[in-house]
Amino acid sequence: MTATTAQTLARRAATLDEASPVRGARALFDLPAGVVYLDGNSLGALPRAVPAALADAVTRQWGHDLVASWNTSDWWGLPGRVGDAIGRLLGAAPGQTVCGDSTTVSLYKAYLAAARLRPGRRVVVTDPGSFPTDLHVLGAAAEAGGLEVVTAAPGDVPEVLARRGGDVALVALSHLDYRTGELFDLPGLTAAAHAAGALALWDLCHTAGVVPARLDETGVDLAVGCGYKYLNGGPGAPSYLYAARRHHEELRNALPGWNGHAEPFAMEARYRAAAGIERMRTGTPPILSMLALEAALTVYERFTLEQARSASLTVTGLFAGFVDSLVPEVAVVTPPDDERRAAQVALRHPQAYGLVRALAAHGVVGDFRAPDVARFGFAPLYVRHADAVTAALTLRDVLDHDEHMSPAYATPSPRVT
Question: Which of 112, 257, 314, 364 has its CA 20 to 30 A from that of 139?
């Protein structure tokens, strides 16, 4: 690698950063100096609006107003308020998205709610390559609901529907392959499910905030996602659950609790579901976490999701192209086509674990997925094209010096993210 080549790449990145539709967004985040953070697909960076919001939540709302804050600060309305803010990013009209549980809990409720909307049909079709939690939770939901789980890669789902369509209650898929970053055909697979009389449920954990889902427009029935990846809500930030308005009247919550009761303070022994999406609330929500997430979402008040998507495509395309040309011994497994690429680039290498650890030692933070994938999430609001250049050049340097083979980096740790 010559100095001239590096300078050429840097100039190209600088031109793209100057023209970026999200130019200036990085200033909304508090990022450590000298770090190229490419792990926003696991944990988003800290928006500058969050610390002040949390300080106010602790000192004024909780500390001073105490229990009155359920009214004075509208803690009670927070799940719907944050849900609607997320819904705007998902292409969902107000009143269809609620925030408050972990992703695991939301998935369980969504799986069973969807199945109960199709009585008489017992089959759920899902991708065997889904994120493990999705498969674990679906297995538990299937056992509780007497369902049969049939697995098929997203491209094979239409064939399964052609064979067993009359038995299928639900097609439950992730918007992308969490390892490779390949986007799946959300509109097409949703339409295929509907043509067979089934419902479509999507896991948006790895795409919300960076890839438009257009839930209302595409006719998605239910969707679930987390708040701590590209939505930047912080570790353990609550999830959200979307259900299309047309289903609300018949929607049943598999985990009914007082927060989803029609009159929660009547303290009735008999459960009566609240109207609309509020019936999918369960227990007392994590107020501090939700207030952090609400503050984090304000970064989208200055930049649209379409602008973020446009920026992510150029920066991921730039990085993948640099790796192809500069680091040919590493395979780019993320699709090159814009319509099939989310906001991450995945690389395959026999020593991917060591590569990720060595890169982190140089301030380029990505993550590893077994057995041989190094993932790099390009959160477009704070990852610049210049960062893509730094990451590619550092990767080349690490390999040139065999740093990834060092015992300090190559020995697996059970806590690697």
Answer: 257
CA atoms of 297 and 340, how far apart (whole Å): 26
Q: Is-catalytic flag, 229?
A: yes
Q: Are 322 and 8 in contact (CB under 8 A)?
A: no
H-run or E-run covering 263 = none
DSSP characters over 21-72? TTTTGGGGEE--TT-EE-BTTTS--EETHHHHHHHHIIIIIITTTGGGHHHH
> What stretch of H or E contains 370?
none
pLDDT tens per residue, range 201-218: 999 999 999 999 999 999
| pLDDT tens profile 149-207 | 999 999 999 999 999 999 999 999 999 999 999 999 999 999 999 999 999 999 999 99
How many angstroms separate the CA atoms of 274 and 111, rounded?
A: 19
| Element spanning 374, H or E | strand 373-377
Q: Which of 26, 109, 341, 375 is catalytic?
A: 375
Return the DSSP state at 170: E
Q: Which of 108, 178, 228, 303 is catalytic?
A: 228
Clarify whether 375 is annotated catalytic: yes
- Count how many residues are written for the chain: 417
Contact predicate 95/84, CB 8 Å: yes
Residue 34, classified by CB atoms within 10 Å of its CB into exposed (0-12), middle (13-18) or buried (19+), is exposed
Question: Which residues make Cβ contacts (< 8 Å) with residue 120, sequence separation at least 6?
Answer: none
State how far Cα 276 lies from the chain centre: 24
Among 190, 197, 187, smallest CA distance to 165 is for: 197
Q: Active site includes 228?
A: yes
CA–CA separation, 413 and 417 (whole Å):
9
Q: Which two tokens stand for residue 331?
A: 């395979």
- Residue 4, token pair as written in the block: 């001239």
Catalytic residue (choose from 39, 101, 203, 221):
203
Task: Measure CA 348 to chain center.
Answer: 22
Active-site entry in 121, 229, 357, 396? 229
- Closest by CA to 182, choosing from 332, 342, 380, is 342
**Which has the closest alpha carbon to 210: 110, 100, 299?**
299
Question: Using 50, 70 and 90 to split pLDDT, how confident is the model at 60?
Answer: very high
240 among known catalytic residues:
no
Set 37, 108, 131, 353: catalytic member: 131
pLDDT in tens, 95-108: 999 999 999 999 99
